[in-house]
């Protein structure tokens, strides 16, 4: 699993993958601030209807 630091470093690439998979996501949905990973996951979960576990797996397993 990628660390939070790796998430920050690879965030632009991950945003592209998320937008590709979930076309309804906007830039506002994908605002990432260090230390606010849970808020980001909550927004993504709300917007996509996916579970937090599935989103974490998508984000951190690639």
From TrEMBL:
Give the family, as the similarity comment puts it. Belongs to the UPF0337 (CsbD) family.
Question: Which residue spans adopt a coiled-coil conformation according to this UniProt entry?
Answer: none
- Protein name in UniProt: CsbD family protein
List the SUPFAM superfamilies hit by this protein, alphabetically.
Hypothetical protein YjbJ
Q: What is the native source organism of this protein? A: Cyclobacterium marinum (strain ATCC 25205 / DSM 745 / LMG 13164 / NCIMB 1802)
Q: Which domain of life is it from?
A: Bacteria
According to the entry, every stretch annotated as the CsbD-like domain falls at 7-57
């Amino acid at each position: 699993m990628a660390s939070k630091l790796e998430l920050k470093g690879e965030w632009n690439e991950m945003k592209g993958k998320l937008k590709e998979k979930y076309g309804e996501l906007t830039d506002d949905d994908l605002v990432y601030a260090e230390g606010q990973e849970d808020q980001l996951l909550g927004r993504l979960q709300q917007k996509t209807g996916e579970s937090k576990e599935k989103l974490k797996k998508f984000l951190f397993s690639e």
